[in-house]
Amino acid sequence: MNGKQSIYNLNREDLLKWAKANSISSFYALKIWENLYRNKFRSFSDMSDLKTDIIKLLDANFYFNTLEIKEVQKSNDSTIKFLFKLEDDSLIETVLMEHKFGKSVCVTTQIGCNIGCNFCASGLKPKMRDLKVCEIVSQVLNVQKYLDENLKEQITHIVVMGIGEPFDNYNNLMKFLSIINDDRALAIGSRHITVSTSGLTPQILEFARENIRANLALSLHAPNNELRSKLMRINKVYPIETIFEALQEYIKITNKRVTFEYIMIKNFNDTLQNAKELADLIEPIKKFAYVNLIPYNPVFEVEYERSTDETIKNFFDFLSKHKIRCVMRREHGSDIDAACGQLRSRYIK
Ligand code: SF4
User: Fold this and answer.
1) How many angstroms does the Cα of residue 76 sit away from the middle of ligand 1?
2) Which residues have any ligand 1 atom within 6 Å of their CB?
3) pLDDT digits over 69-86, tens only?
4) Chain center to CA of 32
């Protein structure tokens, strides 16, 4: 794009700095900002409240990156999965989910993923690159555009749980959060934003000190190192005790709860002994813990199976009896390629 960058790479602070360096007043910089995110203009020339020389300057320096919709899959439960094509032809997935409390969008932060969880379609392909800020922001804007055109509803929640390890693209993640959280942009409250990590402890500690107090979820999936290392090779770098030490510190700093994601896999991590190990592990931070039991969504390429409903219920009952706050998460889009990376993996060799 002739040395131009996407305007969606900038947060409000960046835009104000750029405006100041170009002798544009903060009054006009804020108009530009609101035109982007409140009025949702996709062209500078549509911003009729700006002076012509500002529009020319914007055009000379920035452009609007695009995401092309390659496929949209709709599930019977209103989950909608988007396969987007980026400007370099890479493919990414974004998922829109319906809940009682609103509409959430699950965004992707990387093309492929190096964490290598062996239950995940995305982990089967190595990371090609990190997504730019504009590519993460555009997922939300494009899904909102789809909602505006089809359902006239608003995105209320963001979960950063799509393809990739968000903390492995930390700076871009944080800039993205600052844009969607901005009260003059998309204004999605930090309590409505959740970032999920496989357990990169240095970034957990960094995240604890950020101004944006988004929620943290840990993909735990096993109650001990032996099982977890079989599922997630990252556990050999950051074993459970190291992660829990970081979580204790995170809780001390933020006073916020942590959600533990636990995928229920048949005859692997779903026995009552596993439930007891999990309860023991969480016991010291029980007051701040919340467990999400997730029925495993089978991925064609791997051999794991989903636990039975009865096993999940027994696991849930055990945790509840031990006063661990816990929920059996509803499956989203089980009739479509719902597991993270499944839709994309159909298109790539
Ligand atoms: S589950 Fe998440 S962190 Fe693990 S391989 Fe898949 S995308 Fe990466």
Assistant:
1) 25
2) 113, 115-117, 120, 122-123, 163-165, 198, 340
3) 999 999 888 899 999 999
4) 27
